[in-house]
Specification:
- The complex is a heterodimer of chains A (556) and B (535).
- With 556 residues, chain A is an alpha+beta fold.
- Chain A has 17 helices and 20 strands.
- In chain A, the strands form six sheets. In chain A, strands 7, 8, 10, 11, 12, 13 and 14 form a seven-stranded mixed sheet that branches. In chain A, strands 4-16-19 form a three-stranded antiparallel sheet.
- In chain A, helix 2 (45-64) packs across helix 4 and helix 6 (147-168) runs antiparallel to helix 17.
- The radius of gyration of chain A is 30 Å and the shape is elongated.
- Chain B is α+β, with helices and mostly antiparallel strands.
- Chain B is globular and about 95 Å long.
- Chain B is built from 16 helices and 22 strands.
- In chain B, 51% of the residues are buried.
- Chain B folds into three domains: 20-149 and 416-488 and 503-532, GroEL-like equatorial domain (GROEL, domain 1), CATH 1.10.560.10; 152-222 and 377-411, TCP-1-like chaperonin intermediate domain (GROEL, domain 2, 2-Layer Sandwich), CATH 3.30.260; 224-251 and 280-375, GroEL, CATH 3.50.7.
- In chain B, strands 11, 12, 14, 15, 16, 17 and 18 form a seven-stranded mixed sheet that branches. Chain B has a three-stranded antiparallel sheet with strand order 6-20-21. Chain B has a three-stranded mixed sheet with strand order 9-19-10, with helices on one face.
- The chains are: A alpha+beta (556), B alpha+beta (535).
- The interface between A and B is large, with 88 and 85 residues.
Chain lengths: 556, 535
């Protein structure tokens, strides 16, 4: 999709630049015209740093208002055909769709994408934190502190912040019941900033159940999300079995108990001769008929071989033509065609069958089993439901909602929650939420700043200010008095072992443990480290060289 | 200008369409060229040293690169000027030959050009300047040889190597974990080095990167990493004691190169063809099974049917493996690449202790580890990092470190870094200048001054007073006659480079001086630039 939203005026004005260039030319003692090609430009020193700071901060400010449970959404309109609209609050989705010209802004978009791939959540936080770090760095640079000194300070601070978090993590891996409730809380915290916040308990339950079925694997492919418009979000449900969005062939049984399933990936249309260069050449009509007969015979053979497996359900990845379908119907076998590749893989996973492409050895092919296959209706669509499957590794979540936009956003939110949960299952350390981790880190970092001698301590102090900016933003977005709340929070945190954070719902500082606001340690750590890394990268730059854009041929 | 007349007064045309060309001659040409060269050097100057800054480069397609590797900056810079292109070539050749010091060589050349300009202003002929430089460079290289030290290390004691690699890495963005990366680089080089012949084939070290995790997760794998997964989702994910068949023929019916047609005109033929086809697949898989392979790695794709047969016979397989990777696998596992099924024999199979598939992150990304290979001569450095730019930059840094380690194995001599070697050379060249009668003397002195500009830039980038620092170090070197004193870039408190463990390779430094001198000589010798003004 092509969303068009240009960040205007991130580069210093063109006139200004031209003037600067002229100045440079005048002062150059010689007659070099230029080193670069036409249209290529070069920004140096202060100017380059300015350009990248401004670009990065603009991006951070753009997504800033989506942070937190009361964050607002953005509408993205595509420039492509149909001007399709996306409504979202997911940082990664917003940033992915932007057309950005500023190279520093691209760095931030990149880290948010990586955060999405790695841990799934915290895509907005990472950008906001990086933006804040750069904002603080800009102040330091204007007060004549060298960027390298700032970087050194940031590094120390990040290390210290991470240690502070590590000291305060809670790990309930041993206690299964507690762990589950931790997961529930994390899921609810993640979901509360999304469109699903109304029914967060319902969805949190669903997400946790689904993740537990994965048994520690992080392969989210096994959780299938089916979106069907209609009903309300509350009607969404998790299905223990497996739902395939396909129709059953005509004249075939609609319900099978104790099904034996053969999952296949084979051509059931005209089975081509695969030997290269083979072609049919005939000289009379009768021959054509004969060959056609042979072809049919071949297909019939194949069907018979498949039937010899003693199955009553056959699922194929590719098309099944009418002729074999009829044969299957005759044998009373349920044949499902054109299940896509993921569908096949998941079906293999849940039913424990192997994906077959040859059918000569019926005795050694592992068949899939399930208790019941039936056609069900969701809304107006017919779907095929496999229940009572052997290996419960995969499952389906059916999302219902008023419109496609709602469903799309619901899917993204659920995906975030699932990602975080599956990561937490592997790394079971959790933290409190609601700005608590930021305050803990800020406190430790502040202390470090006091102990450090030299110019670095300014940078360390700035780092702690940047950390505090996150709870401030969360409060601001909720329309609360952020200055008051953050000051209160800071005072609370002066006590050892304090659990205070901002409770946006009630609009006051409260005990996060009591309110059950939890976050995954892995997410927080990734936010901290990637934001620092990105800020460092941008700070190190003292020159931007932009090549001439590649000319595209006019296709019109 | 370019008109000549024969004895009858008719003009010859020497340059066609003269009005469409611009032309610079004589001293103007030299001045313009020097200015262009200096402009390029000026861009790189601020990237030198451990406190050097990075450059952000936006490519023609909008892709962003952030780096401080001189060769990379210049290559991506979209340079138009001819002389600037020469400078780009210069840093590239340093990259090919040595791998490190690509920024230094350009800064050096820029300084030489600057000094040359001054000599030209004095009225010294460019050729004399060039010759003076040549003599001076010879003096400098000899002096480097004299002050260099032999470095003793062996497979068990590779600490000195690690330290040298750390010097290289300290100027990159990865200096946060330079220690571990340096160790990885050294171990990798030692694993593939042929210490008898003093040679290292860097092709055997593969550097792979994957976005995600952080830099500390970077690891050295004694084996091969392939960015592929098993061809069938239900094949086993882990194979111990694997016997690997490495194939370059597809699991598909044969496709003879000559054009042919198989005509089907009767039902019988149709039937036989069908049978044959099935048999063909069966034979292929059976063949692999017969020779005892437990893993098939294939350069090409598989037909669905073949894929299932492989799965069915419990023979895991990997498809679409690239040619280079295939070769590496063959080297590492001691197997042979087999181009036809008929030639498959037990001896040609490769052996590996462990082959496993590993998945990353929340997306469905898997990679195949091939470890404990029969012939452990191939290793992989697997880089993790926060984003793509970081990984690219780490790859470049690791490449530099690998090159340094290799150079040390080739030639054990080192010189001290931090500008110490340049200052020592500058002193030596300055002293030698007086021995040369003639105008070249001035050029030689200019060369000495140009050598000073590298430590000067180092000091400048580190936020020190350049002139003050340089003169202090210089007098210290001269007084104590020890060539170890350099610029204290990291503010450690000492400028003894031995204590700071800042080393560079002798051949790297020598090459820098030689290459820079050569290019400068070339630029000085140009006295006429003819170009189409259309451009």
């Amino acid at each position: 999709m092509n969303y068009q939203q240009t960040i205007g005026d991130m580069k210093p004005g063109k006139r200004e630049r031209e003037e600067a260039e002229e100045g440079r030319k005048g002062s150059a003692e010689n007659t070099i015209d230029k080193i670069f090609k036409d249209d290529a430009s070069e920004e140096k020193g202060e100017r380059a740093r300015m350009a990248s700071f401004i670009g990065a901060m603009a991006i951070a400010d753009l997504v800033k208002s989506t942070l937190g449970p009361k964050g607002m959404d953005k509408i993205l309109q595509s420039t492509g055909r149909g001007h399709s609209v996306t409504v979202t609050n997911d940082g990664a989705t917003i940033l992915k769709s932007l057309h950005i010209d500023n190279p520093a802004a691209k760095v931030l978009v990149d880290i948010s994408k990586v955060q999405d791939d790695e841990v799934g959540d915290g895509t907005t936080s990472v950008v906001v934190l990086a933006g804040e770090l750069l904002r603080e760095a800009e102040k330091l640079v204007t007060s004549k502190i060298h960027p390298m000194t700032i970087i050194a300070g940031y590094r120390m601070a990040a290390e210290c912040a991470r240690d502070a978090l590590l000291k305060r993590v809670i790990d309930n891996k041993e206690n299964a019941e507690k762990f589950r409730s931790d997961l529930m809380k994390i899921a609810m915290t993640t979901l509360c900033s999304k469109i699903l916040s109304q029914d967060k308990e319902h969805f949190a339950e669903m997400a946790v159940d689904a993740v537990f079925r994965l048994k520690g694997s992080t392969n989210l492919e096994a959780i299938q999300i089916i979106k069907k418009p209609g009903g309300s979000l509350r009607d969404s449900f998790l299905d223990e079995g497996f739902i395939l969005d396909k129709k059953i062939g005509i004249g075939q049984p609609k319900r099978i108990e104790n099904a034996k399933i053969l999952v296949a990936n084979t051509a059931m249309d005209t089975d081509k001769v695969k030997i290269y260069g083979a072609r049919v050449r005939v000289d009379s009509m009768t021959k054509v008929a004969e060959i056609e007969g042979a072809e049919k015979e071949k297909m019939k053979d194949k069907v018979n071989k498949i039937l010899a497996h003693g199955i009553n359900c056959f699922v194929n990845r590719q098309l099944i033509y009418n002729f074999p379908e009829e044969l299957f119907a005759d044998a009373g076998v349920l044949a499902i065609e054109h299940a896509d590749f993921e569908g096949i893989e998941r079906l293999g996973l849940v039913t424990g069958g192997e994906i077959a492409s040859t059918f000569d050895n019926p005795e050694s092919v592992k068949l899939g089993h399930c208790k019941l296959i039936e056609e069900i209706m969701i809304g107006e669509d017919k779907l095929i439901h496999f229940s009572g499957v052997e290996m419960g590794q995969a499952c389906s979540i059916v999302l219902r909602g008023a419109s496609h936009h709602v469903l799309d956003e619901a899917e993204r939110s659920l995906h975030d929650a699932l990602c975080v949960l599956s990561q937490t299952v592997n790394d079971s350390r959790v933290l409190l939420g609601g700005g608590w981790p930021e305050m803990v880190m800020a406190k430790e970092v502040d202390e470090l700043a006091r102990k450090t001698a030299g110019k670095k301590s300014h940078a360390i102090e700035a780092f702690s200010r940047a950390l505090v900016a996150i709870p401030t933003t969360i409060a601001d977005n909720a329309g609360l008095d952020s200055a008051e709340l953050v000051a209160q929070l800071r005072a609370e945190h002066h006590n050892e072992g304090c659990n205070a954070g901002i409770d946006v719902i009630s609009g006051a500082v409260g005990d996060m443990e009591e309110r059950g606001i939890y976050e995954a340690f892995k997410v927080k750590q990734a936010v901290l480290l990637s934001a620092t890394e990105a800020a460092e990268m941008i700070l190190r730059v003292d020159e931007i060289i932009t090549c001439a854009p590649r000319r595209r041929e006019d296709r019109m | 200008m370019a008109l000549a007349f024969d004895e009858f007064g008719r003009p010859f045309i020497i340059l066609r369409e003269q009005d469409q060309k611009t032309r610079l001659r004589g001293i103007d040409a030299q001045k313009a060229n020097i200015a262009a060269g200096k402009a390029v050097a000026r861009i790189l100057r601020s990237s030198l040293g451990p406190k050097g800054m990075d450059k952000m480069l936006q490519g023609p397609d909008g892709d962003v690169t952030i780096t401080n590797d001189g060769a990379t900056i210049l290559e991506q810079m979209d340079v138009d000027n001819q002389i600037a292109k020469l400078m780009v070539e210069l840093s590239r050749s340093q990259d090919y030959e040595i791998g490190d010091g690509t920024t230094g060589v350009v800064v050096m050349a820029g300084a030489l050009l600057e000094q040359a300009e001054r000599q030209l202003d004095r009225g010294i002929h460019p050729i004399r300047v060039a010759e003076g430089y040549e003599m001076a460079s010879r003096v400098a290289v000899e002096h480097l040889e004299r002050i260099s030290q032999k470095f003793e290390f062996d497979v068990d004691n590779f600490e000195p190597l690690v330290k040298t690699c750390m010097t290289t890495l300290s100027s990159k963005i990865v200096n946060r974990c330079k220690r571990s990366l340096a160790e990885i680089a050294v171990k990798a080089v030692l694993a593939v080095a042929d210490l008898e012949r003093r040679d290292v084939n860097l092709d055997l070290i593969k550097v792979e990167g994957k976005v995600g995790g952080n830099l500390e997760d970077t690891e050295l794998i004694y084996g091969i990493l392939v960015d592929k997964d098993m061809s069938h989702p239900q094949m086993p994910k882990q194979i111990e004691d694997a016997h690997i068949a490495i194939l370059t023929c597809p699991f598909e019916p044969p496709k003879p190169k000559t054009k042919h047609k198989v005509d089907i005109d009767t039902v019988e033929k149709f039937e036989t063809l069908r049978k044959q086809e099935q048999q063909y697949f069966d034979e292929m898989v059976q063949k692999c099974k017969d020779v005892g392979a437990t893993l098939v790695i294939c350069q090409w794709g598989f037909d669905d049917e073949a894929n299932h047969l492989l799965m069915h016979r419990n023979l895991p397989a990997v498809r679409w493996v690239g040619g280079v990777e295939l070769e590496l696998i063959a080297i590492a596992t001691g197997g042979r690449i087999v181009p036809r099924f008929q030639e498959l024999t037990t001896e040609k199979l490769g052996k590996a202790g462990m082959v496993r598939e590993k998945s990353f992150g929340t997306t469905k990304e898997r990679m195949l580890y091939i470890e404990h290979c029969a012939n452990s001569k191939a290793v992989t450095i697997f880089i993790r990092g926060g984003n793509k730019m970081m990984i690219e930059e780490t790859k470049r840094s690791i490449h530099d470190a690998l090159c340094v380690a290799r150079n040390l194995i080739r030639n054990k001599s080192i010189v001290y870094g931090g500008g110490a070697a340049e200052i020592a050379c500058s002193l030596a060249v300055d002293a030698a200048a007086d021995k040369y009668p003639g105008v070249e003397q001035y050029a030689i002195r200019a060369f000495a001054e140009a050598l000073d500009s590298v430590p000067m830039a180092l000091a400048e980038n580190s936020g020190l007073q350049p002139i003050e620092t340089l003169s202090a170090v210089k007098s210290q070197q001269l007084k104590e006659n020890i060539p170890f004193y350099g610029i204290d870039c990291n503010d450690v408190g000492t400028n003894d480079m031995r204590e700071q463990n800042v080393f560079e390779t002798l051949i790297g430094k020598q090459q820098q001086i030689l290459l820079a001198t050569q290019v400068v000589k070339m630029i000085l010798k140009i006295d006429d630039v003819i170009s189409n003004s259309e451009y």
